[in-house]
Design goal:
There is one protein chain. This protein has about 190 residues and is α+β, with helices and mostly antiparallel strands. The chain folds into 2 domains: about 110 residues, no CATH class; about 50 residues. The chain has 7 helices and 4 strands; from the N terminus they run H-H-E-E-H-H-H-H-E-E-H. Helix 4 runs antiparallel to helix 5. The longest helix has 23 residues. The N and C termini lie far apart (about 75 Å).
Length: about 190
């Protein structure tokens, strides 16, 4: 027989996991530094001096001006900052399945802790199931389940790969979104000396 009141009255903890930020896909200074450590120098010729973004004292591109990014979709994404997270695709059926399994697991553990029958909270579980199903059905109708992800766009991927081959991206401060450093060898050499 179920107890009217359980001893454990803690509210269940709801947890979630953030998706990754765009930082790991855009900023590549770790790759550049690793390449520099392995080779000691880069075998890299650049045409920085011809760029309108050239920083004359160094003869290479060093800028925080994101107009250097020719792909408009990528530029608009980078403007949002390296901590920005693109909205993930939502699988309502998977989410419903995980939530309902978690509720049942929680109810079983709660009953075990209280040393009662495992079916003691069946009525509560059924009520939660009903609420979850209604909410998910409502949200599935209301929400676009497949938002366009800029970093999955083939044109953006190709452009970003080409950009990373020629440019090292650094986040210098929290206020400056990103700074782009070109001519990897001379940049890293000058950073190492300073």
């Amino acid at each position: 027989m179920c107890q009217k009141y359980f001893e454990n009255k803690e509210v269940p903890m709801i947890s979630y996991k953030y998706t990754k930020t765009i930082r790991n896909n855009i900023i590549n200074y770790n790759e550049a530094l690793k390449e520099y450590k392995e080779k000691g120098d880069f075998d890299y010729q650049c045409d920085c001096s011809e760029s309108i973004f050239c920083y004359t004292p160094h003869g290479h591109v060093m800028t925080g001006d994101l107009n250097i990014i020719g792909n408009e979709k990528l530029r608009s994404l980078v403007l949002k900052g390296p901590k920005f997270r693109e909205q993930p695709n939502i699988s309502w059926s998977k989410n419903k399945k995980h939530i309902l399994e978690a509720v049942e697991t929680y109810a079983k553990r709660w009953c075990k802790r209280e040393k009662t029958d495992s079916d003691c909270l069946d009525e509560w579980v059924n009520e939660i199931r009903s609420i979850v199903k209604k909410k998910i059905a409502h949200l599935a109708r209301k929400t676009n389940a497949k938002p366009p992800r800029i970093l999955d766009d083939p044109d953006v991927k190709t452009y970003l790969e080409g950009l990373k081959k020629n440019i090292s991206w650094y986040q210098l401060t929290r206020q400056v979104i990103t700074s782009l450093l070109c001519a990897k060898s001379s940049t890293l050499t000058s950073l190492r000396k300073s």
